[in-house]
């Protein structure tokens, strides 16, 4: 009987402890706005500085409406999002990996059409192409919270001057400069391909830039839609151009194995050592700015305009730029979620992140002088001023195709001689990814 | 408040339900004779567990098999998913990797665990040594994957392994980029984690061997090696079987290490990862189910060995 008593006391203690533990409801929606006390759940890939910027972006909305935005971050958004949707508990808003996946979700009925307010803002303040990118079967389901300009070539002006190099005016100038650098004894390019499960994606950007500039926007569109084979001459040309530099240890810092082992945010680090390990870095606009990778990795040394700057990758046969963005969709059309997503596309909200750096806005009402740095201003102007803009191809492809693309980059870098069989494998995946 | 209520319901309710069930079964068989009661009662008591197993184990298995017969649009395709898997050619690489994991991971974990258990047994700081070796078991595969990603990093100022070899003048190596070296490097991570498990269980088994037996053997002139191979090993055989079975199953289930460290690239993929890739990246539940069934088939022989062992043990009772 005594043992039983002790047991009963112990169990009650455990009970009380469990009950007094942290409770799930942290709803402390300050103020008494329209949605006081409500929560909007958001699923995104952002962490660290990006997450802080997003939280700053939603803060005014939270204050006004009294609601709370709960952000969950995961790098593995493909799997997590799919599970949540299939399990019937999707987040209210979520970052979508790309228009390709967005279309899949929309056709499955998981994505809800966005409210008319959003449509109105897009019509007024954005280029029509952005609304088109977020529309599936005539319904607007996705908007871009922030965008980035891709196909920029970063360089270190101070090092250029020291070595007597000048920014090339066109493609031939660039290839001549690259060969000059290699002849002078330094590997011209710094490339970082590592990114966990998405390793290789900077390489896909290279290929996309080549396809757009070598073969033009129509070929690019056909390729994105799965109508052009990977082994076609146009795509092969792009891969060969990439492999020429990326798989040759004369042209890329540290050679292929370093390239594959270096995280994408550190790919340009070699530009800042003395003497420099490389001179050029092909990457998107988020490298620059206060919140960008250069200044985070080298807080004293990286100074916009002095030790880092960019020029847009020149056209080859065609001119054009590639862009990408963080695409968001709504899975639960609660009034609070609708209000939040309508807020996020307004110039007011977009400006908050833009001011913090590391983001571009496609919203035309965001004035150029709001950008905190020259890099941001230049990128914004390049984006809005470009003749042809195309969205990142690998983001638009079905997930299976995108994954195969990544692996193909890795294989190309490691074994450039196997290019034709690598492309054939991609053709096989293309059949099942687009056909199935 | 919600939590407190749930806690009360569970703590009071579960024993109440169990007692209630037993009383109910007694009432059901009240009409039978004494010996009939004794025969039926065990089956009634086992019934809830059996139902549980059916719903959560047997039904999903059958369901998975049925799923594997459909393609991603929902059409019945029979064994096409299996045919596609094997036709692709890359699947053989996956199976080869699994074979490597099976042989190397299991073999080294068991042997190393045994050696450490035997050696630790003979030193005074045994507990400390065993604790140190066991610690990696406390972290998840993902954490181990992250730690060792840094250990293997190609930059010598980050990667410990490369720092070590550059100190003796060798060039830094890209450890996880080339097959088969990368699979072996990943297996080393797994071994680092699981040796503790094998060691602890084998150590317990070792202590169960009567010292008088070993003393007697030594007095009779047996060398240490003879004592080990002729006496300890045979007596430890059942324990080794238990450890080996568990480790083999772990070897076949591996996913986290590959996902975290290479994302399935560089020919390191295993069945566990292919399942994930088919389900979440390719969004083809049929193919994913096919991979799962193949894994199930691979485990069947081990299960049979296990069952045979249980039967032998039962017979000895």
Give an account of the 3D structure.
The complex is a heterodimer of chains A (436) and B (317). With 436 residues, chain A is of the alpha/beta class. Chain A has helices at residues 2-19, 48-65, 77-87, 99-107, 116-125, 128-133, 157-163, 171-183, 201-224, 233-246, 255-261, 293-297, 335-344, 347-356, 374-385, 393-396, 399-414, 419-435, and strands at residues 39-44, 68-73, 93-96, 135-136, 139-140, 142-149, 152-155, 280-283, 309-312, 321-330, 389-391. In chain A, helix 9 runs antiparallel to helix 10 (233-246) and helix 17 packs antiparallel against helix 18. The longest helix of chain A is centred in the middle third of the chain and has 24 residues, at 201-224. Chain B folds into two domains: 2-67, no CATH class; 88-316, MetI-like (MetI-like fold, Orthogonal Bundle). In chain B, 77% of the residues lie in helices and 0% in strands. In chain B, helix 4 packs parallel to helix 8 (181-207) and helix 12 runs antiparallel to helix 13 (285-316). Chain B starts with a helix and ends with a helix. The A-B interface holds A 11, 15-16, 18-21, 23, 78-79, 82-83, 104, 196-200, 254, 257-258, 260-262, 399-400, 403, 407, 410, 414, 433, 436 and B 2-4, 7-8, 11, 71-73, 153-155, 174, 177, 259-260, 263-266, 276-277, 280-284.
């Amino acid at each position: 009987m005594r043992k039983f008593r002790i047991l009963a006391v112990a169990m009650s203690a455990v009970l009380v402890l469990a009950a007094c533990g942290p409770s799930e409801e942290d709803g402390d929606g300050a103020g008494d706005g329209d949605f006081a006390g409500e929560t909007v759940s958001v699923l995104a890939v952002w962490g660290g500085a990006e997450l802080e910027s997003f939280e700053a972006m939603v803060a005014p909305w939270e204050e006004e409406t009294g609601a709370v935005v709960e952000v969950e971050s995961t790098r593995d958004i493909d799997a997590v999002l799919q599970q949540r949707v299939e399990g019937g508990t999707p987040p209210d808003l979520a970052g979508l990996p790309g228009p390709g996946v967005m279309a899949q979700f929309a056709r499955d009925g998981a994505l809800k059409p966005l409210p008319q307010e959003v449509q109105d803002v897009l019509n007024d303040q954005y280029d029509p192409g952005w609304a088109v990118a977020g529309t599936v079967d005539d319904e607007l389901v996705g908007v871009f919270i922030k965008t980035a300009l891709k196909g920029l070539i970063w360089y270190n002006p101070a090092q250029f001057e020291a070595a007597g190099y000048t920014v090339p005016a066109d493609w031939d100038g660039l290839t001549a400069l690259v060969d000059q650098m290699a002849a002078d004894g330094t590997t011209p390019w710094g490339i970082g391909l590592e990114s966990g499960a998405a390793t290789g994606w900077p390489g896909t950007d290279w290929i996309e830039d080549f396809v757009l500039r070598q073969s033009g926007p129509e070929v690019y569109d056909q390729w994105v839609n799965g109508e052009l084979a990977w082994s076609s001459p146009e795509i092969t040309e792009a891969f060969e151009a990439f492999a020429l530099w990326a798989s040759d240890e004369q042209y890329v810092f540290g050679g292929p194995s370093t390239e594959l082992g270096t995280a994408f945010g550190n790919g340009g680090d070699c530009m800042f050592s003395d003497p420099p390990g490389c001179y050029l870095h092909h990457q998107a606009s988020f490298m620059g700015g206060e919140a960008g990778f250069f200044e985070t990795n080298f807080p004293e040394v990286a100074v916009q305009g002095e030790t880092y700057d960019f020029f847009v990758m020149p056209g080859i046969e065609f001119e054009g730029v590639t862009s990408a963005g963080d695409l968001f969709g709504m899975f639960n059309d609660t009034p609070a979620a609708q209000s939040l997503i309508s807020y996020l596309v307004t110039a007011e909200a977009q400006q908050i992140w833009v001011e913090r750096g590391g983001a571009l806005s496609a919203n035309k009402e965001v004035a150029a002088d709001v950008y905190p740095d020259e890099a941001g201003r230049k990128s914004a102007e390049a984006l809005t001023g470009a003749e042809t803009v195309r969205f990142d191809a690998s983001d638009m492809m079905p997930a299976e195709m995108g994954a195969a693309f990544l692996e193909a980059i890795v294989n190309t870098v490691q074994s450039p001689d196997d290019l034709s069989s690598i492309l054939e494998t991609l053709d096989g995946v293309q059949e099942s990814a687009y056909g199935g | 408040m919600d939590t407190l209520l749930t806690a009360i319901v569970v703590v009071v309710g579960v024993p109440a339900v169990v007692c209630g069930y037993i009383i109910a079964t007694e009432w059901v068989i009240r009409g039978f004779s004494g010996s009939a009661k004794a025969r039926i009662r065990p089956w009634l008591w086992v019934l809830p567990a059996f139902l549980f197993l059916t719903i959560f184990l047997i039904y999903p298995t059958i369901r998975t098999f049925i799923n594997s017969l459909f393609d991603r649009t929902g059409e019945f395709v029979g064994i096409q998913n299996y045919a596609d898997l094997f036709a692709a050619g890359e699947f053989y690489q996956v199976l080869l990797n699994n074979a490597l994991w099976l042989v190397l991971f299991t073999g080294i974990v068991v042997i190393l665990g045994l050696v450490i258990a035997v050696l630790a047994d003979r030193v005074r700081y045994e507990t400390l040594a065993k604790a140190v070796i066991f610690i990696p078991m406390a972290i998840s595969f993902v954490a181990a994957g992250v730690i060792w990603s840094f250990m293997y990093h190609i930059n010598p100022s980050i990667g410990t392994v490369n720092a070590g070899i550059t100190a003796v003048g060798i060039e830094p190596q890209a450890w996880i980029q080339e097959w088969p070296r990368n699979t072996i490097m990943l297996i080393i991570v797994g071994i680092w984690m699981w040796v503790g498990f094998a060691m602890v269980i084998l150590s317990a088994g070792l202590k169960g061997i009567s010292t008088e037996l070993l003393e007697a053997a030594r007095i009779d002139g047996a060398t240490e090696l003879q004592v080990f191979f002729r006496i300890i090993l045979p007596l430890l055989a059942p324990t080794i079987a238990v450890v080996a079975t568990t480790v083999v199953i772990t070897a076949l289930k591996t996913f986290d290490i590959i996902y975290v460290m290479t994302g399935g690239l560089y020919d390191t993929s295993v069945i566990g990862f292919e399942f994930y890739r088919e389900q979440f990246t390719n969004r083809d539940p049929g193919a994913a189910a096919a991979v799962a069934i193949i894994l199930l088939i691979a485990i069947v022989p081990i299960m049979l060995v296990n069952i045979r062992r249980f039967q032998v043990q039962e017979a000895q009772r």
